[in-house]
Design a protein that fits this description.
The chain is an alpha+beta fold and 461 residues long. It folds into four domains: 71 residues, 434 Repressor (Amino-terminal Domain) (Orthogonal Bundle); 79 residues, no CATH class; 114 residues, no CATH class; 160 residues, no CATH class. The protein is 45% helix and 20% strand. The strands form three sheets. Strands 3, 4, 5, 6, 7, 8, 9 and 10 form an eight-stranded mixed β-sheet that branches. The N and C termini lie far apart (93 Å).
């Protein structure tokens, strides 16, 4: 009796990822193949020899073939989506433009595409540099491709096919010529939303959120919290005089046939955006909670002023740390509870930062007096240096060989280990401090001496 034929066992489903994208992401995260292989094995919850795990990973990076489970774990480790690993997310702008430029250059050399050849000749009339012409054409075409992906204009797509010689499927692959960003700003009963094309800049943020208006509603203790979740980056004002939330929210968008989708930005785009938001926060608030949840300063009482002295010529740089001398005087006299009442009062008034800064500025003027009071008030130039305050020594018109040192003031926080970390110092607060110092130097009205000797400069390590 014939036995029924056994059905062949179905093979394991294969999930295809883009091996070039995988390799680029691994390198951007500074993983070696061996390190990523070990991390993948750990995520899978299995123990295996390093050589075996590395060999298996190299096969994935070489062929792009793996299982859905492993692809999901790789995406998790690298901090991206599965779509990104599949090459369905936009590539880095530099990579996209380089690839498109190579294609355009090859078609020009082959004499293909009447429209492309005509466009190139027109460009040469303006710019005789051949490579620069090709680069200009590439950027223009890239912007047109990106726009067509958003609008899905059929005629525009047909024109681009004729111009580039690319098939529609190739044209509709994720592009990154400038990129789309959705930005929303809300304050009180006012909200503004904008779809911006290109990297987000200071100017773009200022258009969304009126900085002068925002600062008018913030007190000295207002903090800014930075956060990111899923695909959104957020900057929110805390402890302000506003009853309703005040925030800016930003997401990277990418168009497909279903509309604009929120995606995880590239590594370079994320770095740029995080740096921009952190810089913005440090310039409008005196306390910032960063993307990792770290508050700076952790406590206003830990604030100090770092003074760096840069002598003329090749002299050694020196530094001085200014503490709150008023607090030290209270402690020396055993009056800590009175100082605590004083700080609690200013805390309740939402002016704890301003109180600490005033104490530090008075201690600074007391310490710097011997170094600058011997010169005429016009011998010094006072500037805001975006992070702190600069006091520059002007040259003597009667003796250009006579030069004075420059002093740089920064707000820092003293850490539990005795080190220092730079702290936020809003532009509004810096400007007030700058005027206070200028007035004291101009009038000679320096604060009284404290019971403790003023700190001295020491050579930087």
């Amino acid at each position: 009796m014939n036995q029924p034929a056994q059905k062949a066992k179905p093979g394991r489903p294969v999930f295809q990822i883009d091996q070039d994208v995988l390799r680029r992401l691994r390198e951007e995260k500074a993983y070696t193949q061996e390190q990523l292989a070990k991390e993948l094995a750990t995520e899978e919850g299995r123990a295996c020899e390093v050589d075996t795990a590395t060999s298996a990973y190299r096969r994935i990076e070489r062929t792009g073939k793996t299982s859905l489970k492993k692809a999901a774990l790789l995406a998790k480790i690298l901090g991206v989506t599965l779509s990104c690993l599949q090459g369905k997310a936009p590539p880095e702008q530099e990579d996209y433009l380089a690839k498109l430029k190579a294609h355009i250059e090859a078609r020009l050399e082959e004499g293909c595409g009447e429209k492309l050849q005509a466009q190139f000749k027109q460009e040469l009339l303006i710019n005789k540099n051949r490579d620069q012409c090709i680069e200009n054409i590439t950027k223009k075409i890239a912007y047109e491709i990106e726009a067509a992906q958003l609008t899905r204009n059929k005629q525009a797509i047909i024109d681009l096919i004729e111009l580039t010689g690319l098939h529609e499927d190739e044209l509709m692959k994720p592009a990154n010529a400038a990129g789309y960003w959705m930005i929303t700003g809300s304050m009180m009963d006012w909200t503004k939303t904008d779809l911006h094309r290109g990297l987000v800049t200071n100017e773009v943020l200022s258009e969304i959120m009126n900085r002068d208006r925002l600062e008018a509603f913030m007190h000295s203790d207002s903090a800014i919290r930075l956060s990111k979740d899923d695909r959104w980056f957020r900057m929110e004002v805390l402890n302000s005089k506003l009853s309703s939330p005040t925030r800016i929210e930003i997401a990277r968008g990418h168009p497909d046939k279903n509309g604009l989708q929120w995606i995880i930005p590239s590594v370079q785009e994320e770095w740029h955006l995080c740096y921009l938001l952190e810089s913005w926060a440090h310039n409008i608030a005196n306390q910032v909670i960063d993307f990792d949840g770290k508050k700076s300063p952790s406590c206003f009482d830990n604030l100090r002023i770092l003074v760096e002295k840069l002598p003329p010529g090749d002299g050694p740089q020196e530094k001085m740390i200014i503490e709150n001398m008023l607090k030290k005087d209270y402690e020396r006299n055993g009056e800590q509870k009175y100082y605590a009442k004083l700080t609690n009062y200013w805390h309740d008034e939402h002016e704890a930062f301003h109180f600490q800064l005033q104490c530090l500025l008075k201690a600074f003027l007391n310490a710097i007096k011997p170094h600058i009071s011997s010169c005429h008030e016009n011998a010094w130039q006072f500037e805001d240096n975006a992070m702190g305050i600069t006091i520059k020594g002007k040259r003597n018109p009667a003796d250009w060989h006579e030069r004075k040192p420059d002093y740089y003031l920064y707000l820092v926080e003293e850490t539990s280990g005795g080190g220092i970390e730079y702290a936020p110092w809003s532009q509004k607060s810096r400007n007030s401090a700058l005027e206070y110092i200028k007035k004291a130097v101009a009038t000679g009205d320096y604060p009284h001496d404290y019971s403790f000797p003023a700190p001295e400069f020491s050579r930087s390590a």
